[in-house]
Amino acid sequence: MHRLTPYVPGEQRADKNIVKLNTNENPYPPSERVLAAVANVEGQALRRYPTPESDALREAIGAYHDVPADHVFVGNGSDEILALSFQAFFRGRGAVQFPVPSYSFYPVYCGLYEVEARSLALDDDFCLALDGFKVSGDAQAGGIIFPNPNAPTGRAVALDAIEALARQHAGVVLVDEAYADFGAESAIALCRRCPNVMVSRTFSKGRSLAGLRLGYAIANPELIDGLRRVKNSFNSYPVDVLAEAAGIASLKDEDAYRDAVARIIATRTGFSQALEARGYSVLQSAANFVFARPPEGNAADLAGRLAEAGILVRHWSTPGIDEWLRISIGTDEDMQRLLSAIDSVSSI
Ligand SMILES: *Cc1c(COP(=O)(O)O)cnc(C)c1O
User: Which residues line ligand 1 (CB under 6 A)?
Assistant: First the structure.
């Protein structure tokens, strides 16, 4: 046990006056219709266990993405789906390849499931070149996982590059689309053509439901069956009755979802320009955050000063990205407060 190195999530604080731009939560709450769906769940429904495979929710997700329900798996957040995937597809089959920097849960799962981690460095400008993944020799049996768009950089890769990789690789290619709502081309359509492609998605970011814990995977039924076997060897009911109701309501409330996403994208554009005007380097983002380097590269110091001013952003002291900050996109007002704080701490 003491050999495990767990994931460290961004800080959560109870103080409501904090401007929280450190965990990529959606700044807009879910719509009234989603809240009403939770409120309308009857006591009789809570008395019973949920349906083990969340059939109604899987039907709704399948209809939304135009895939059959047997191509859909749901879980308690997409992190759970990633964990089940490591166990179902990656454990005992050779090294797993993923980009670095990227989502820091991947090496944690490698530790948990005792899978060798093989990292692919990003280009100097933080682009992910998918043709850098190894697809021959002993790499063939292993898995490949990457977020699209990538975190913490926000950069997206094109769908044809994903398809080319999936066609060359024998093992499972898992595309983590936690942020795809905000700009990347989805690989969901690929799941019909390439039996080794799995896409994981979440209700946490674009759909404003991080507190609900709901994620899903789309892939061909054979891979879905692999996830189901692992899940049913561990927990028959990872998705509760309230989450199923809210998830279905969210998928039906397309206008509210699109509206919030459009607002975040507009805020992202304005905020990126405002940082650039202050001499920051800002990567082009397809996500609900930006990755930015202050002109002096003093990211750690700046993050500390901003926290003192009640504004949380994310900083890693990992070499290569230690001069950068990942800043979630909040409301226009949140970003204005951040810019004012940046201006006042920078003039000290
Ligand atoms: C947020 C995030 C997830 C996890 O989402 P949950 O559904 O909340 O567990 C997975 N992958 C990446 C890259 C993320 O940023």
Answer: 77-79, 103, 147, 151, 176, 178, 202, 204, 210, 215
